[in-house]
Design goal:
The complex is a heterodimer of chains A (about 300) and B (about 280). Chain A has about 300 residues and is an alpha/beta fold. Helices cover about 35% and strands about 25% of the residues of chain A. Chain A is built from 11 helices and 15 strands. In chain A, α4 crosses α5 and α9 packs across α10 (about 270-280). Chain B is an all-alpha fold. Chain B has helices spanning about 15-25, 30-50, 70-80, 85-105, 105-110, 115-150, 165-195, 200-220, 250-275, and strands at about 155, 165. The chains are: A alpha/beta (about 300), B mainly alpha (about 280).
Chain lengths: ~300, ~280
């Protein structure tokens, strides 16, 4: 287990009758940047709360940095920086005072250097100029940055960042990406959850996809991509007709859109499709064959991206 | 990160978190306003008595003695505030202790620092005890300052008509303050427990006030005398016993026992409730 930063086995959480997380076997290798994906309500946050000992599992167990949770939480959690379900701070304290409070609660840090630690964390997320401003006056993006700063108050071996780009502008999102990259370069393992694959795709070495409480896919980004079959796309003004022809040719998963039809190629030679369309009088405005994006895989695993899993 | 040197193995005891907790309580404007209200009562009493020229004797306990010695303003104010204002102040702080953090979500971040849950309850309760004493002393110190300024000090005639010197009189008033503070701290344990049941600090606060008020009401119904010994407010007015000569320690002792029992039982209830609770706020 020493090579896994996070390992769960059979992790399950039931809230009354609803199963929020269903026998999860999460494996985040040490040093990985693990993208934890899933639509809103798929159980990501409940899983993260169980990892951190906030919620106790109904069944199964969690090992964090090689230690069993939550019994060893006092040994482990100081080495874990966490951002859970958005920022939460005392509204009438400044950003600096809020971080100082969290630092004061940590029995593993030295009081004398608290100010330096707090300011270094604020500086790292670009909040130092707003350090003395009350939290209630912060914008959503600044609040999110402060939460990230609190996760960076001291060196961490593992960072658990739940939706870190929520509320950030594109510039802020880019900054989070480069921050994650630099943390990873420093040797930290990072688990980033998101419901938007596109936000984390570029920075992740590993991906896990949740849907309705279950982990439906997990592996390195390359492994997940390898399972993707090429698709053929016909652009035409007669999508239904094109789709019919593609089905007849034996393409799988054929879907018509307003601008054309798409289907999994399987063993069909792509040139046959164009020929068949032209032969049936369907004008072909464009044709291409390519692998679907990881986004398409994500959507195919979880249904539509914005569906709330119930 | 360059701060690697700052990290050390966990300490067993540290006052940093408690000090942070106290700053949170005592620097909050709402709490300043609350303490100002507490302080306004002895001011009101002393000014009213002064303006009446002390001719109109009567009024609740200790009122008649105010013109004799200003220290009695503190005790008269305690008598007036122990019914509602002081319990209300303790209810506000203790009801907010866990529910307030849960309400704004800071609880989850404290627990992942990590702060062990028993330690969180211990620090929160210690802060409540300190606040209870501070609230009581706000009343009595204001009362003594106002009383001494308007009526002067000197030797003090106790309830049993014995005369004691100013220093002893002062000491006895401080003793009464500590007693009331500790009684209120036991109500704070009830508040801490209620605070672990909800994410609504206002609801918790109201529940604590209901608890203390209900205790007074039950205590006023003679047919329920079998219940009286276990009521939290039962011995609160015993602070007057330290103004007798000799001091009626029995009443004070009974009050401290009940307070200690409430503190221990409700702290443990809070722990039993909170230790394994899912934090989903």
């Amino acid at each position: 287990m020493s090579s896994a930063a996070v390992a769960t086995s059979g992790l399950t959480k039931r809230f009354r009758r609803q199963v929020a997380v269903d026998s999860l076997d999460l494996l985040v290798p040490q040093g990985a940047v693990y993208g934890f994906l899933g639509p809103n309500g798929s159980g990501k946050t409940t899983t993260i709360r169980m990892l951190l000992g906030l919620v106790s599992p109904t069944a199964g167990h969690v090992d964090l940095l090689g230690h069993r949770m939550p019994s060893r939480s006092s040994d482990v959690l100081a080495r874990v920086g966490a951002l859970v379900e958005g920022p939460a701070f005392h509204p009438y304290l400044s950003g600096r005072e809020n971080l100082a409070r969290l630092d004061a609660a940590d029995t593993t840090t030295v009081a004398g250097s608290a100010r330096g630690r707090v300011d270094a964390a604020l500086d790292r997320v670009g909040l130092l100029p707003a350090a003395t401003k009350r939290y209630r006056a912060y914008s959503l993006g600044m609040r999110q940055r402060l939460a990230i700063a609190s996760a960076l108050l001291r060196p961490r071996d593992l960072l658990v960042l739940d939706e870190p780009t929520n509320g950030l502008d594109p510039q802020g999102t880019r900054e989070v990406r480069s921050l994650v990259a630099s943390l990873s370069a420093e040797g930290a393992t990072v688990l980033v959850s998101s419901h938007l694959l596109s936000e984390v795709e570029q920075m992740c070495s590993h991906l896990g996809v949740m849907h309705a409480g279950r982990l439906v896919a997990q592996g390195t980004s390359a492994e997940l991509r390898a399972g993707i079959e090429p698709e053929a796309v016909v652009e035409t003004d007669q999508p239904q007709e094109a789709a019919r022809i593609m089905r007849e040719l034996g393409l799988l998963d054929v879907r018509a859109s307003s601008t054309g039809a798409t289907g999994r190629l399987g063993r069909i030679a792509p040139e046959k499709i164009v020929a068949a369309c032209v032969h049936s009088g369907v004008p072909v405005l464009g044709f291409r064959v390519g692998a679907p994006s990881l986004e398409d895989v994500f959507v195919s695993l979880t249904g539509e991206g914005f569906d709330v899993s119930s | 990160m360059s701060v690697a040197d700052d990290v050390r193995s966990p300490r067993r005891v540290s006052s940093r978190f408690l000090r942070s907790e106290l700053r949170l309580i005592f620097l909050r404007r709402r709490n300043w306003a609350g303490l100002a209200v507490l302080a306004s009562v002895p001011i009101l009493i002393s000014v009213a008595v002064k303006l009446s020229g002390g001719d109109e004797s009567g009024g609740p306990d200790f009122f008649g003695s105010i013109t004799d010695n200003g220290l009695f303003v503190a005790l008269a104010a305690l008598t007036m505030e122990i019914g509602l204002f002081l319990p209300l102040a303790v209810a506000a702080i203790s009801g907010d202790s866990i529910a307030g953090e849960a309400n704004i979500g800071t609880l989850r971040y404290l627990l992942t620092v990590p702060v062990q849950r028993a330690r969180l309850l211990a620090v929160k309760y210690l802060a409540i005890v300190i606040f209870s004493l501070a609230a009581t002393f706000t009343v009595t110190v204001t009362g003594m300052v106002m009383g001494l300024a308007l009526f002067g000090g000197g030797s003090m005639t106790l309830l049993s008509a014995t005369q004691v010197g100013f220093a002893e009189g002062l000491l006895r008033v401080l003793l009464a303050s500590v007693y009331v503070g500790l009684c209120l701290a036991s109500l704070g344990a009830v508040g801490l427990f209620i605070s672990t049941l909800t994410e609504q600090p206002i609801g918790a606060m109201i529940a604590v006030v209901i608890f203390s008020t209900a205790s007074y009401i039950l205590g006023a119904i003679p047919q329920l005398s079998w219940l009286h010994p276990v009521l939290i407010t039962r011995h609160w007015f015993n602070f007057g016993d330290v103004m007798r000569d000799p001091i009626a320690w029995q009443g004070v002792q009974d009050g401290l026992y009940v307070a200690a029992a409430y503190a221990v039982v409700f702290w443990l209830l809070a722990w039993a409730r909170f230790a394994g609770k899912d934090v989903t706020s």
